[in-house]
Amino acid sequence: MAKRKPQAAQRMWGGRFSRPPAQAAEEFSRSLHFDSRLAPFDIAGSLGHARALRRAGVLSAGELAALEVGLAKLARLVVSGKADFATGEEDVHSWVENRLRELVGEPADKLHTGRSRNDQVALDARLWLRAEIEATLGRIRALNGALLDLAGRHATQLFPGHTHFQPAQPVLLAHHLLAYVEMLLRDAGRFRGALARTAVLTTGSGALAGTSIPLDRRAMARELELPAVSANSLDAVSDRDFVAEFVFCAALTMTHLSRFAEELIIWSHPALGWAEIGDEYCTGSSLMPQKKNPDMAELVRGKTGRVTGHLVGLLTLLKGLPLAYNRDLQEDKEALFDAADTLRGSLEVMTGVVGSLSFRPERLEAAAAAGFSAATDLAEYLALAGVPFRQAHHVVGRIVRHCIEGGKDLPDLTLEELRGFSPKFGPDALRILTAKASVSRKRGPGSTAPAEVRKALREARARNR
Ligand code: ARG
Fold it and tell me: Which atom of ligand 1 is nearest to the CA of 93?
């Protein structure tokens, strides 16, 4: 296709103007360089619209057939990656219409009957986003699959549970990993909710008021496999809730990935040496030959700010807009695309990172046992023996102080020492002083008890299908 300078004839408008737009105005308002991503969906929507126009009696059977052939050709061209978008049009809608005119001639001039770019761009974005959400759900499933495999491989491994990033109570590593699986399962649920509100037909709304052309909107929706038809034309052309909602879901998912990334960075520090990310997901230093840096995790953490920024940008974009369509809305797409691209990259790279992770069991074991991590179990032992918990807490606090002063750990204590603090301690108290015992004493669903974690692992696998 020859490079063309934009001509008035190529624009969708211009009859009422005596002068063409200034170059600066044209460049400032052009969106083709980013909305060309919508081309396959603009073509699909146009096909549905052409069929509705035939049913409305606007197109003859021959005109529809010509448009169908032309749109199919155009779709193949776009899918092949050979389409030339450096053709000077204002936006993707003009690009599709102009290419179609080159292919089929006059019937292309009838295609825009009863349609505005306002309802058209809303439909295009919704169709694009539907596909993107479906792909996102697959990517979350893959990451969860990798986390579940990792948890399954370390089903009995002890891990130091933290609060305030201070040693708190031992947990199973699988339990810790399953916490992220839960976050991601909720994220997937949010994306599914967003999908239902995205898959809505907006065409038939015209520029804002609907159209006098009798378009069968239900039939158009069926054709595009959209379960819903928008209920208000003003809302349909100006609603970008679905964009903001997707970007919120993306920002929250990124936030979850970022928390995990932060933990991976901490775990990789040689002073802890709890985990190691595979070489294929780390980078070196140009200066320090010994370095192995967790850059992928750092980038995921960093890119989270970018997606959150898009969410704030979108909400700010929308907050002052009077009904109905305003050109401001064109600013939604770069944010949407970048949020989606960033999320896709982050999910994919984190899936690889998780698959490459290895742990150092002896380090984890030692860390899980350190810091008197079974102290709470000792207090709960007394509570189960009838000691009010507040008193039991105090007794065990004194035991910990005794250990610190004597340079001992809890498993070093004798029954006599324990009974010196409370007569309620029996011989079985000696068996609960280790990290392993602490974990296995937990009760109830949702806890880190080994049997519960095994069950949670099984159930999470089923919920991730
Ligand atoms: N590029 C525009 C957008 O993204 C398409 C709709 C333009 N409508 C208009 N009346 N200028 O919102």
Answer: 5
**Alpha-carbon 347 to chain mean position:** 8
Give the phi and the psi of residue 3 in degrees, each rounded to 5: -70, 130
Decide: 306 and 345 in contact? Cβ < 8 Å: no
332 Cα–ligand 1 center, Å: 11
Q: Given pLDDT bands bounded at 50, 70 and 90, which one contains residue 4?
A: low
Contact status, residue 182 vs residue 144, Cβ threshold 8 Å: no
> Buried b / exposed e across 32-66, counting CB within 10 Å, b at 16+?
bebbbbbbbbbbbbbbbbbbbbbeeebbeeebbeb
- 341 CA distance to ligand 1 centroid (A)? 22
Name which of 253, 236, 244, 7 is nearest 119 in CA terms.
236
Is 358:278 a contact under the CB 8 Å cutoff? yes
Identify whether 250 is preceded by a cis peptide bond (ω within 30 of 0): no
Q: Rounded CA gap, 41 and 415, in Å?
A: 74
- The span from the CA of 320 to the CA of 317, in Å, is 7
Between CA 290 and CA 287 the distance in angstroms is: 9
Q: Which residue among 164, 286, 373, 440 is the active-site one? A: 164
Helix or strand holding residue 359 (H, E): strand 358-359
* Known catalytic residue at 286: no
What pTM, to 2 d.p., does this model score? 0.96
Task: State the DSSP H helix or E strand holding residue 358, giving kind and residue range, or none if neither.
Answer: strand 358-359
Cis peptide before 324 (omega within 30 of 0): yes
* φ and ψ of 128, to 5 deg: -60, -45
Whose C-alpha lies nearest to ligand 1, atom 11? 327
Q: Where are the alpha helices (DSSP H) in 81-116?
A: 92-104, 107-110
**What digits encode the pLDDT tens for the residues 316-375?**
999 999 999 999 999 999 999 999 999 999 999 999 999 999 999 999 999 999 999 999
E-state strands within 36-182: 158-163, 166-172
3-state secondary structure string across 225-241: CCCEECCCHHHHHHCCH
Residue 262: exposed, middle, or buried by beta-carbon count in 10 A (0-12, 13-18, 19+)? middle
Which residues are within 8 A (CB) of 412 and not within 5 positions of it... i.e. 6 or more apart? 403
Residue 164: active-site member:
yes
Distance CA 204, CA 224 (A): 14
Please give the structure tokens belonging to residue 48. 């549905």
Protein residues whose CB sits closer than 6 Å to any atom of ligand 1 = 31, 35, 91, 117-118, 121, 327, 329-330, 333
Q: Which of 285, 310, 373, 438 is catalytic?
A: 285
Tens digit of pLDDT for each residue in 36-69? 999 999 999 999 999 999 999 999 999 999 999 9
Give the residue from 63, 76, 74, 65 showing the smallest Cα distance to 109: 63
